[in-house]
Design a protein that fits this description.
The chain is built from six helices and four strands. By secondary structure, it is α/β, with parallel strands linked by helices. Bound molecules: 4-nitrophenyl phosphate.
Length: 160
């Protein structure tokens, strides 16, 4: 909770052009539909800085459009201040978890770091949102469906 009484959530993936900007867009859209978007601050970031300033990958934008979303955030790199700034830091896979842990200056901050599969309901049993970057459109669609499942659960779990 920040000075504006907002709960803040940061989605993290490797490049911040496929999975985490989709998570950001989906949660923003669901929160808006629920009328609680003013209570939340939602953002995304990448472990790496290769794509900083870029829109999400064209295939993910297209997949978003087909599913009724607009993924249009600009990529940025995760930085250590994010540990302070956010209440929830949600990573897409085990590699992301390990990378964030290596950047983390103390154990208290690690309590804010969550794996996305913690929030799977329909897809309980899946362990991550696999990186679709080297995959095909079916992989992008699967990522969106996993993220929709997690975002639905998040909104319920946070009882916002
Ligand atoms: P993301 O996918 O982590 O879901 O954004 C990737 C995008 C780009 C790269 C890797 C993963 N890359 O190596 O450039």
């Amino acid at each position: 909770m920040d000075i504006f009484n907002k709960t803040s959530l940061l989605f993290v993936c490797l490049g911040n052009i496929c999975r985490s900007p989709a998570a950001e867009g989906i949660l923003k859209s669901m929160a808006k539909e629920k009328g609680i978007d003013n209570n939340l601050f939602i953002d995304s970031a990448g472990i790496g800085g290769w794509h900083v300033g870029q829109l999400p990958d064209r295939r993910m934008r297209e997949c978003g459009y087909k599913n009724g979303y607009d993924f249009s955030s600009k990529a940025r790199q995760f930085n250590k201040m994010d540990f302070e700034r956010f209440d929830y830091i949600i990573v897409m896979d085990e590699d992301n978890y390990r990378d964030i842990k290596m950047k983390c200056p103390n154990g208290e901050y690690m309590k804010k770091v969550h794996r996305i599969n913690e929030y799977f309901t329909k897809y309980k049993g899946e362990m991550s949102v696999p990186d679709p970057y080297y995959g095909d459109m079916a992989d992008f669609q699967f990522a969106v469906e996993l993220l929709e499942d997690a975002c639905q659960t998040l909104l319920t779990k946070l009882s916002l």
